[in-house]
């Protein structure tokens, strides 16, 4: 192992910085899926929404020179994908999971087709907040240079945790998610609530895609996502549909994903690439450890097709 400017402390520092960078897309996709699943619908199409959002954000940022407009455009595109998904799923005998897989492939195909002309141009990046100005060590300064979307994601997790419990919209969402019949008896239209929840979930997932293309890694290409959209569904289950749990679980997944680069940054030249599989291994371990044939998933919405 080669020496670095801050010695062995380089590993935890690199993992900390990597956890924040890698976790940000997971935060937004998992929070979006939490909203959708709280209404009683599962959306496996978020991988396609994530990639299409990444392409849309990058293209709009290239054309307008504004990364903020790129994020807003991605949100609009994600909402449209969610509306399409929600509209199709309202029909009788339509399977949420099958439609989600179809929407995922549709989103990926559209992103690859429309995004070919934007692979070469360079888009402006999203701003970050430099919290390491107090230090003269470049590694610490880089680790504490945090993108603004991470803070927005943290605030959104806290807000959703409060809103689910303390607002009328949160109550309606929970009622619809727990029992379609009870919602109808209260005069609530479950299809409309699920349509809007799926649109909101798609919009947030697209923000995660915008982060990938406009900040980290900060480019557009067809391999920009490594399955974050699908892994976020497992993350939501692990977090038991709790927004704060989603935020913390995203950090855990982000830290696992940062292991490989962290080891490489301190001079480990052999075997570090095996740790790039850590997030996927962690996903399998978590799903196996939390599954049981004798008990239901704690906190799961009663009407969610995943739990039926």
UniProtKB/TrEMBL annotation:
Keyword Membrane set for record: yes
Keywords annotated in UniProt: Cell membrane, Membrane, Transmembrane, Transmembrane helix
GO CC terms, sorted: plasma membrane
Pfam families in UniProt: BPD_transp_2
Location within or outside the cell: Cell membrane
GO molecular function, one term: transmembrane transporter activity
Membrane protein topology class: Multi-pass membrane protein
Segments passing through the bilayer: 6-32, 69-88, 97-119, 139-164, 193-214, 246-266, 272-290
UniProt cross-references to InterPro entries, sorted A to Z: ABC_transp_permease (IPR001851)
PANTHER family, alphabetized: ABC TRANSPORTER PERMEASE PROTEIN, SUGAR ABC TRANSPORTER INTEGRAL MEMBRANE PROTEIN-RELATED
Protein's UniProt name: ABC transporter permease
Organism, as annotated: Rhizobium anhuiense
Taxon lineage: Bacteria, Pseudomonadati, Pseudomonadota, Alphaproteobacteria, Hyphomicrobiales
